[in-house]
Amino acid sequence: MPGQSSHSRAARLRTLIVDHDHATRAQLERLLCRHQEVELVAACATARAAAEAMKRRRPDLVFLDPGRPEEGGLKVFDVLRGRRWPAVVLMAAAGAPLPGAEEVHEVDRLVKPCDRVALQAVLARVVSRLAAGGRPAGTSPPDRFSGGGRVAGPPPLGRLPIEGAGRIQFLDLAAIDYIRAEGKYARIHVGSRTHLVRGTLTLLQERLDPRTFLRVHRSLIVRLDRIREVEILRHGELRLFLSTGDSLISGRTYRDQLRLSLGLPT
């Protein structure tokens, strides 16, 4: 693609854009070309062109708007049966559904229209996950995100180990309401009880399913099914009322992703 340099070419993520909208493709292409960790190999408007690019260019990362089910956006991955699967960032307008997300190696989501800050945050998370375990190497489509859907790296948590008094207890993730950062530790809120675990919120986020747990503030992760009501505040933040009776305020940086996850317009 034009504008790409040869600097660290071997270390770059070979990246493919798939979106029927020309303006979205052009905007994303301009933004991605600013990132040295990305080598943009193709930008496609149709499933047929994307499938050919997948087969010929072997991307590491795909930005994909799957469109409506009848549009067949996910069919671009049919050419990969028995081959290495790329990591996938699914794209959609705020509030739009993402059909068939469980069928691909989804590692993140991006709200359209995308902007520089949101894309930079997504790329940072993707690069971090890939760096932790190398390139995605699955040779078949995943059944669920919590299984084959993640790229190689630290395995997703099934239970959270809680250390204390010389013993380790294992907490079911379904019991967690939200998690708050406390320096190099994270405080796990479970009803009226809390547990302090070693590790930053970012490291913990890497091990949690983003369909269940969402970062809503630099110091907060919340379990989405605990949110019962939302109040829209003046400067773009949201006040989240949980089923536990707690209320949390989201950060503006996380607004669009939170709205997308809750099915709200931006």
UniProtKB/TrEMBL annotation:
Residue positions, PTM 4-aspartylphosphate? 65
Residues in domain Response regulatory? 14-127
Keywords per UniProt: Phosphoprotein
Looking up InterPro entries in the UniProt record yields: CheY-like_superfamily, LytR-like, LytTR_DNA-bd_dom, Sig_transdc_resp-reg_receiver
GO molecular function annotation: DNA binding; phosphorelay response regulator activity
Give the matching Pfam families: LytTR (PF04397), Response_reg (PF00072)
Q: Does the keyword ATP-binding apply?
A: no
Which SMART domains does the entry mention? LytTR, REC
PANTHER family (UniProt xref):
STAGE 0 SPORULATION PROTEIN A HOMOLOG, TRANSCRIPTIONAL REGULATOR-RELATED
Q: What is this protein called?
A: LytTR family two component transcriptional regulator
Q: Which organism is it from?
A: Nonomuraea fuscirosea
Q: What is the lineage of its organism?
A: Bacteria, Bacillati, Actinomycetota, Actinomycetes, Streptosporangiales
